[in-house]
Please model this.
Amino acid sequence: MPGNMTFDTLKKLVGDGSIDTVLVCIIDMQGRLMGKRFHAQNFVETSYEETHCCNYLLATDLEMATPDGYASTSWRSGYGDYVMKPDLDTLRPVPWLPGTAMVLCDLLDHHTHEPVPHSPRAVLKRQLARLEAMGFDAMMATELEFFLFEKSFDDIRKGGFRELDPISGYNEDYHILQTTKEEAIMRPIRNHLYAAGIPVENSKGEAESGQEELNIRYAAALDCADHHTIAKHAVKEIAWQQGHAATFLPKWHHDRVGSSSHVHQSLWKDGKPAFYEKDSELGMSELMRNYMAGLIAYAPDYTFFLAPYVNSYKRFMKGTFAPTKTVWSVDNRTAGFRLCGDGTKGIRVECRIGGSDINPYLALAAMLAAGIKGIEDKMDLAPPTSGDVYEDKKAGEIPSTLRAATETLRNSAFLREAMGDDVVDHYTRAAEWEQEEFDRVVTDWEIARGFERA
Ligand code: ADP
Model:
């Protein structure tokens, strides 16, 4: 569902003094909330119409650098402004911060007021408009996995990121005893998000010390991406409030399990599940078979949107539940794509490739584009695989490094047609920059290995 506060309610709450701050946020390329904290009175009087931000926010990296090579903005063009246009449908309280509400914004060109094509919300809206023209709605759910740590973000940073002790001492998969010990963080996460209109289903312990998973009920794709972004932000803020750190880095240690973000997907028509057909094999409609065929065939093209950093690729290891093969299966967790809810109206496909570091808008958009292509070309779905897919030599592979995924993205005629050359070029540059930054740095591993012995 969209936000759970109307503009009239906000005005009333500002009037009686219960809200004094409005967070006015965009979603950046990394899937983070960026923006300004408005005095609520100013927001309800004028800024609800629009405000602005520097356009480098969509041409930067995790460190807020100003890399060259983007067509959209640069030092040469003077890094101008974008219009931040509040989407008042996303208004909601932020119950974990006193007196605070939040609104998400779309980004518009400063002069033409046209949507900025590479802004993550615009990238997703473009694919949703294509689906709508075909008569379909996309319902999606993203799972959020992350690790909690004993120490706070600041203490960990001051210690050079060396004192990384997870909050628990053992694998806590489905563990009620251990997760009770984490309730000081997890209970406010569930309850505050729920009160913010985000339909939390549950949280559970995951398969490693300190690893948690948060599940949110499936929703229309744009709402799903908004929910994911706000939930990820809330996890970090609430962990910080409690004196702890939470990380969504997919692989924070090579000996530990990684964190994923599996994506459940189904198409609906006139409020009915269009992937379901009662009397067909496994209850799959032809539409679902075509959608899945596209999703699988084009997985190498869009892997960057599921694994956008050098670290993302460290998660893809056999025997870890992180898939490397572009095949599907029925309820088998070693394949890249899993059929869930077969034979029921809840039938859906789960993509298991994405890491916890996805930008959900871009990931959902890329997968929908692949599914649409499968439907348009009436692509055939190969039979499901079974057994341990890691050992299947014939199964297709996803790119295993950021370098390889950058090339499949750059050369994807399908994504260029579906998303636009400007969008693909923009994110190809982001991928290149990430690799360039990594390549110039000397790592701890090289020093320890070679300092004396090389
Ligand atoms: P798992 O065992 O993989 O965690 P769950 O049964 O908990 O599976 O469901 C995972 C997610 O799938 C939930 O977030 C749920 O809301 C979502 N989901 C259920 N039905 C659908 C559907 N038809 N389309 C998309 N997502 C769905």
Notes: The longest strand covers residues 81-93. The chain is about 35% helix and 20% strand. The chain has a mean pLDDT of 96. Residues 139-141, 201, 215-218, 264-266, 346, 348 surround adenosine-5'-diphosphate (CB under 6 Å).
